[in-house]
Design brief:
Blueprint lengths: L1 H8 L14 E3 L9 E3 L15 E9 L2 E16 L2 E12 L1 H6 L3 E9 L4 E11 L2 E10 L4 E8 L4 E8 L5 E2 H8 L9 E8 L2 E17 L2 E12 L12 E6 L6 E7 L4 E11 L19 E5 L1
Parallel strand pairs: 10-18, 11-12
Antiparallel strand pairs: 1-2, 1-12, 3-4, 3-17, 4-5, 5-6, 6-7, 7-8, 8-9, 9-10, 12-13, 13-14, 14-15, 15-16, 16-17
């Protein structure tokens, strides 16, 4: 249960890698093949796949047992560093018997600049059982450096780190939204660089199938994509696979996210979707306040 909650919240599904201002690299077939770069023009308009005010709600289930709810929101378009960014938010909350056994209350945010595209900032507030963390990461896409402030609330410990990043790197949540803008097709694979914690992960997303799926929100024609890391990391868990169902229209809206666990599988299933009007736009959320002491600085 904990795995899918964390994955869903983090928006589960990162994909592709593009290293300079442009290229999306299409992963070749076979492990020994060389990667070939396919030039893709930078986006200069609002992506048609999603828009300000999109609000998706998911029920999280372990078999027939309902464990909680998760949401994905394009909260607003916000100016950051004189750039227009999509402020996207993923939240998950445990409910009922699962909440009694293991309380989850997670919030992940990202500020995605669509022109390149790249992530300029991301933040998370994680409360899973006794584990409690607040974190903010600035991705300086000009200097190609990151600055991370990590506050472990349950241990009253703050740590700061700095290091290098490749051009146009994304965070997990921002990459999930970016993959929705890609030309998905069965048999295609995409790679991308994703920054998580203090590490950049090369991530691969494979488009494996196309099938119709029925969830509470309705019946949808979907592509099934599977994100995979090229080395051990956040999406590798004892060989278990993660499947994400994205609608086969221009929106590539996520309707089902499913992963294997020790017994059965855990799924996040779409129960409702809507577009909030500008007048209903959610209040802006500031990055988490982090206690400045004690602090350990690490320059990577």
């Amino acid at each position: 249960m904990k795995n899918l909650l964390a994955i869903s919240l983090a928006a589960i599904l990162p994909a592709t890698s593009f290293g300079g201002i442009a290229p999306v690299r299409v992963a070749p077939e076979g492990p020994a093949a060389e990667e070939t770069a396919v030039s893709v023009a930078p986006k200069t308009a609002i992506p048609s796949a999603f828009r300000e005010g999109e609000d998706l709600t998911f029920a999280i289930k372990w078999g027939v047992l309902k464990g909680g709810y998760a949401s994905l929101k394009v909260q607003n378009i916000e100016a950051l560093e004189n750039r227009s960014t999509y402020h996207v938010v993923a939240e998950a909350h445990s409910t009922g018997m699962v909440n009694t056994m293991y309380h989850v209350n997670d919030r992940n945010e990202a500020w995605l600049e669509p022109q390149t595209p790249s992530t300029l900032r991301y933040a998370r507030k994680i409360h899973e059982g006794k584990y409690r963390v607040e974190e903010e990461v600035i991705l300086d896409q000009t200097a190609h450096r990151f600055h991370q402030r990590h506050y472990r609330i349950d241990k009253n410990r703050t740590e700061e780190k700095n290091g290098d990043i490749p051009p146009n790197v994304l965070d997990v949540l921002g990459s999930f939204y970016y993959v929705r803008t890609l030309p998905l097709e069965v048999g295609k694979s995409f790679t991308m660089d994703v920054h998580s914690e203090d590490t950049v992960y090369p991530l691969v997303v494979n488009v494996t199938k196309r099938e119709t799926v029925r969830v509470k929100a309705g019946k949808f024609d979907c592509f099934i994509v599977e994100p995979q890391l090229r080395k051990n990391g956040i999406f590798i868990s004892k060989g278990k696979k993660l499947e994400v169902f994205l609608t086969a229209d221009d929106a590539h809206m996520p309707v089902l996210m499913r992963t294997e666990v020790f017994i059965g599988h855990v799924a996040a299933e779409l129960v409702s979707h809507r577009n909030v009007t500008p007048a209903e736009t959610y209040a802006l959320t500031k990055a988490p306040a982090i206690d400045p002491t004690p602090t350990t600085e690490i320059d990577q």
